[in-house]
Specification:
The protein has about 120 residues and is an alpha+beta fold. The chain has a single domain, classed as 3-Layer(aba) Sandwich (Endonuclease, Chain A), CATH 3.40.960. About 40% of the residues lie in helices and about 15% in strands. Helix 2 links the parallel strand 3 and strand 4 (about 100-105).
Length: about 120
């Protein structure tokens, strides 16, 4: 697990390049915000979390299947991650920030992701 990156992952870099190509400017890893969002757009008061499907328990996603060994450990770990994510989103909402969660499987379709980002950012 120590070889699993938490910053500058491939899905994050893809989302950042996409946002930049759309003309948006952002900050990375704002430690002063709950959950240390991967991307923060202060002008729009929006933050983006790029979640790995496995690590954050993306419901219904084939990438989120638990391993067949040590099931109790993994189930507890993923449930804690999900709970922490929910709490961070509540805290961000209370501070007036709009959190967006992008799953790593969504990055596979950049056109669809671009449309989603346009919708989310224009709605603010």
């Amino acid at each position: 697990m120590s070889s699993v990156r938490s910053k500058n992952t491939k899905p994050e870099i893809i989302v950042r390049k996409l946002l930049h190509s759309m003309g948006y400017r952002f900050r990375l890893y704002r430690e002063d915000l709950p959950g240390t969002p991967d991307i923060a757009l202060p002008k729009y008061k929006m933050v983006i979390f790029v979640h790995g499907c496995f690590w954050h328990g993306h419901g219904g996603c084939p990438r989120a299947k638990l391993p067949k060994t040590n099931v109790d450990f993994w189930k507890e770990k993923i449930e804690k991650n999900i709970g922490r994510d929910r709490e961070n989103i509540k805290r961000l909402n209370a501070l007036g920030w709009k959190p967006i969660v992008i799953w790593s499987c969504e990055v596979k379709n950049p056109n669809k992701l671009k449309e989603r980002l346009k919708r989310e950012l224009s709605s603010n």
